[in-house]
Amino acid sequence: MYRLSRYHDRRCLYAGCDPLRRRLITAYYYNIASMSIFISGMWLGWPSSASEKFMKHETGELHVTYDQLSWIVCMMDLGNFISPLFGGYLMDRFGRKKVIAALGPLFIVSWSLTLFVPNTVALYTARLMAGLGKGVSYTVVPVFLGEIAGVDIRGALGSVFTIQLSGGVLFEVIIGPYVSYQTLNATSAIVPVLFFIAFIWVPESPYYLLKVGRQADAARCLRWYRGCDAGSGDDTVDAELQLMEVNVRKDMENGSAFGELFTNQNNFRALAVVVVACAGQRAGGISSLTAYSALILPEPSPVMGKFEFIIAFAIVLVIVNFIGLAMVDRVGRKPLLIASVTGLGVVTFVFGVYYFAAENFPDAASAFRWVPYACHTTFAATFSIGIGFIPVVFLGEMFPVNVRSRCSAFASVTLAFFSFLSNKMFLVVSRDYGYYTMFWTFSAVNFSCAYFLHRYAIETTNKTFLEIQEILDDSVRNGSRRRRKLPEIAVMYDNSSRVNIQ
Predict the structure, then answer these.
(1) d(CA 187, CA 67)
(2) Membrane spanning segments where (predicted)?
(3) Domain 19-202 class?
């Protein structure tokens, strides 16, 4: 069996390829592929601008009630709940590229419905289709990105996924307040067209091509991704290709059914941590704040306009993502995650206190109208520095390759379910029991999530895949998190074969 030592992996794997050229080419394909995540982010940010236009009857002959608005918002989560169940099958059956490319027409049709069919049924359908696309994106794109990236730049490029999602939200909230409803939708429809035109030229994943026995095509695509000339493949691409073949053979030998997530104790422990982190991410308030900010924030707003604060919210989401990604390998996944979720518990509790006072003591609360705006921005920063991206990191680190796509689908379903629940219940509960009820519910969710993660999450920073499995094995057997020394050859093999799907 062909294996590379750690030295050979780092120094020889790309010796015949220009490093700068390779990094730029891989980064380019990363950004093109993750544009589907950007479009999903656009659909997440769209209600924040559109809801205000609905309530002010600025949408022509289209009239939307509060109840209809809640369904419009949560239909995306319903679609997102369904699609991961078949997204994993489709990418193994037809290939990563074909499935991601198909998202272009799907998103084009969804935006076209908002443009040309002005009724609520069309909006329900458009949001449902957007949710289908988002679920497939969350399931397939991380796997594709992990398979095309080089070993030495995979972690850095993993940030693209999170930045693209926040960037899509920012795109909508920047444009939305200053253009008409139709102009907003028309501008948004251009992006999936550009995505489809750009992505059809992206090569297939070499990993997938090897799985279906197309070794020559895999070598050709890998050489393209690595920016190598045709004659440089003997010592560089062929070496990495043999590593991929090792991984493929290993994957084919192991079972990959959903049952492996539950019957294997290590997988189940890791699954519980990822599911709770994903549930806390969406049920802790981010979904409702992103969708309903224009309705939640009181008027008049301090310092600047309400929509300027919403734009600031989206900008903070993007900027603090970079800060969190710079800190996560220094501080550690677990401390940063727990600090983030605990902070969100405090912020949402203060949110609830303000709205309780505003409803019961309006005169006294009027002097503190700045509080929800401060909480709004603080929430964005606290979310982005930890819980906003670390669940995706855990997803790529805590599971063997043979069950990773299954767990990715399971995590996507979890995100969709709790986002649906949060978005659907927010307006209904707030209308009958006040905003403070929902914000205190968010606070309870965040504190509960922090407690669970403190007890059961493990630290994965700077650990190889085999080391993580050893820690999980120890914690499952006796609660100990001792690190046991691994055989050197195992560490070398793991460093060269590990696939991270950030």
Answers:
(1) 27
(2) 28-48, 68-87, 99-118, 124-145, 157-178, 184-202, 270-297, 309-328, 335-358, 370-395, 407-427, 433-453
(3) mainly alpha
